[in-house]
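Cross-posting from the chemistry board since nobody answered there.

I work mostly on the small-molecule side, so proteins are not my area. We synthesized zinc ion and want a rough idea of how it might sit in this target. Sequence and SMILES are below. Is it possible to get a predicted 3D structure of the two together?
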Amino acid sequence: MREELDSLLCEKYPLLFKDRNADMRTTAMCWGFAHGDGWFNIIDTLCWHLHAGYDRAKSNHNYLVSRLGKSHFGDSNKNIVVQEDIDESKAKMDAEAELVPTVVQVKEKFGTLRFYIHAGTDAHYNYISFAESMSGVTCETCGKPGKRLGRGWIYTACEEHAEDDDWADSLATYEEE
Ligand SMILES: [Zn+2]
């Protein structure tokens, strides 16, 4: 995937991609996103879900910091935000950060996306499984609806990006390894 999109994902989801530039002996993420630009939206949406718990906790924490000594909402004298509320929201944010998985490799294989993480929850793996399936119906080059094609070399493409005589035959959308 082109550098600009790679950087955008790393900026939006720093916890997921904290190993983006780590040593190749510890992660395959140093190779970047080894697939075409057409899957950017799938990955961006997947990452949003994997990062959402932390992002929610962070925005709540930032909000409380901005309201210290004032009411939780509006100009009332009730429900004043105290330091304890801020400490609590910080602890919640730190706990959520721990739950965000670290991505170890993102690549194309047999025409579909493979998104590998270190230590995820069942929910994380369900999101990943769905994203991987969506890649089997999405052109890897341009992102338009596509299908899995080819024989020796299997890839997912729209009609425009299919090799000349592949379009008539398509393979199963997604196969478990
Ligand atoms: Zn295409």
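Reply from a structural biologist on the board:
Welcome over. Reading the output above for you: Residues 139, 141-142, 144, 157-158, 160-161 surround zinc ion (CB under 6 Å). The first strand starts at residue 33 and ends at 34. Happy to explain the token format if needed.
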